[in-house]
Amino acid sequence: MDSGLESLTLLFLSPIFLICMILEYRALKRRHQADYSLKELICNFSLAGLHQGADVIATLLLMPFFLWLFQFRLFDITLTPITVFAVFVLQDFFYYWFHRASHHVHWLWASHVAHHSSENMNFTTAFRQSLTYPLSGMWLFWTPLMLIGFDPTFVVLVVALNLGFQFFVHTRIVGKLGWVEYIFNTPSHHRVHHARNPEYIDRNFAGVLIIWDKCFGTYVEERDDIHIDYGIPKPIHSWNPFVATFHQWKTLITLAFSRTPTPMNTRLQYLFGSPAFSDTAMLERDGSRAHLVEKAEKAEKAEKSEKEKSHHS
């Protein structure tokens, strides 16, 4: 497998990405809605570079496994217009389930949260990817394609093209697109996905085709009467790419491997359960710690006050 295929594909598309960002910036500026900032640009591009570097290394390490797995393929599939279409549709189907799982399984969310942690929505948001995706196991979702009989090199190319398409749905300047909304993922659909409004959260997981959300009950249409609030329920308030990458891993590790006596099923929930379960536990833990600190400070002040009274008497 060509370890740099995904990176080369995205590099080939980069001039188009740059033109879109310039046009978007100018359009937002005319509307007095410019949400581009130098700090965010540096953060987002840093995350993209770290992600691409990690992907190249991961593919090199995983290549022997992919090629070994490909030996057990069910079919010998040659590339024809029909099989090319089939692999694009199947990969997008598996992407839907990867994306949906990434919002409901804490181990996967620990990587994916970097993409959602920005409180802005523009084309550069698409570059917010995590270098820990190989660790959390994103690649596992593509292995069924190899077992079916699609060449691993072509699978990597299709994954890259799917991700490349998704760049174009990260914007606020494009409205609804008529009949396209019924079949494809669009900026309107994806704005819903990046919202933390209760009406929108954990919806519209599509990569390219919105039909999966409509089939599996996760589709919600963007409404004109709801102002979208972008970001995650627990904001990180940082442009540091390493904070964006590792803050949720810190939560996961702190809870799952705590020295505090904890039932094994609870530790497993911290690892693979709902992200909300872990975030709630972390808030309670921090709240308890803050309460103990406050209590200790009050006791210290009371003791100091008593000593002062004794001294004066």
Descriptive overview:
- The protein is mainly alpha-helical and 313 residues long.
- The chain has helices at 5-30, 38-70, 81-104, 106-116, 133-136, 143-148, 152-167, 180-183, 187-193, 211-216, 241-256, 264-272, 275-312.
- Helix 3 (81-104) packs across helix 7 (152-167).
- Residues 290-296 have low confidence and may be disordered.
From the N-terminal CA to the C-terminal CA, the straight-line distance is 84 Å
Q: Globular, elongated, flat, extended or rod-shaped: what is the shape? A: globular
Oligomer: single chain
Q: H/E order of the elements?
A: HHHHHHHHHHHHH
Low-confidence stretches: 290-296
Helix content class:
55-70%
Task: Tell me how many strands there are.
Answer: 0
Percentage beta strand: under 5%
Number of helices: 13
Structural class: mainly alpha
Average residue pLDDT: 90
C-alpha Rg, in Å?
23 Å
What composes the largest sheet? none
Summarize the structure.
With 313 residues, the chain is mainly alpha-helical. It contains 13 helices and no strands.
